[in-house]
Model the fold of this input.
Amino acid sequence: MWFRRDLRLGDNPALCAARASASAVLPVFVVDERVMALAGARRERLTASLAALQRETDGALIVRSGEPAEVVAELTAEVGAEEVHVSGETTPYGRRRDAAVASRLARAGRRLVATGSPYAVTPGRVRTASGTPFRVFTPFSREWKAHGWREPAQRPDVTWAVGPKSERLDHPPEVPAGEDVALKHWRAFLERDLDGYDELRDRPDLDRTSRMSIPLKYGEIHPRTLLADLRRHRSDCDRAGVDRFETELAWREFYADVLWHAPRSRWRDWNEDVSHVQYDQDADLMAAWREGRTGYPLVDAGMRQLLAEGWMHNRVRMVCASFLVKDLHVWWPHGARHFLRHLVDGDLASNNHGWQWVAGTGTDAAPYFRVFNPVTQGKRFDPEGDYVRRWVPELRHLQGPDAHEPWRRPEGYVHGYPQRVVDHAEERHVALERWAHRHG
Done:
């Protein structure tokens, strides 16, 4: 069993298939250096998740580093395995990698067996009545719900094979991770925060999001499990909260479906009609954005949280993305790469298509002329300035909503907070002018 984005034992159809085909299963994880070129928080989170899986498999998990096709082929030959079971991959790189592994195994008379995927509905299955991919979220969401999904798979009783020596995990950090932690966190969210989720999820000061995007990223829990629990809670909880959370999962599935059908959209504008907008690339302004020194408190709070925690509230992600694209006029892939490098829940499909949603260049594109105002967004979703003061200590002396507009207070800059790098109103006008003249 080659684990990838499914670091769990429960609700894992690929593991069930492996158990059904043999009396003993050897669990394996391949450390792919191309995927491991990540910021510290992401590496630490993956290492912690692998350490948890190693405990769950009674120490049987084998960790090997190198080119996946070579590592998997060599390991199967070493132990005499005839099949390698995996969860189906859906990303462009994952599909290419698995094709190479399958080809290498086939030459030796062995098979790569893919079962299931990291999604409730495997990308590519939900289509319009005419058989074409969906281009807009709302009709996709309706059809996705109508299509439905299987109940969570039972956790199999697996006899773990004793394999060759494993590489040691480099000092697993004391980071809560793994299947048991994910399930406990999810159950606590259901009991404590699902009620009111529809209204409060946008408040970074309250931090009422589930943060389940992190265990979903590593496959410590499957979305089917979440959806099954939501259905059971529908009659007991605030229905609006249940429906909203289900919709958020649908967005994740939609973007995976978009990437499946349009793999080029991972780093290019999905909507080619807007591919000729003029962009800038000012190194100093981009550095100010990355480091949280733009002079706009909500933007700076979010970017500093990203660097410190490897996470950022979703509402703030949209504001920070809009600021880079619309205020600093930087093409979205530059920001998307920075987010993917640092976010512990960084997911190619959700991250990059979410950036395009903000930029107005993707599916379901918000009109390009909708520009997030970082000040009004801050006042609306962080009304007392608590989130800003948490991450921008230079503004902790300002009370309430004053933290969002230090330029309005004579003492606003006494602790060294930077002046605004641009004027939002002016740059919004520039962005709209460039949009109007995008075809030259």
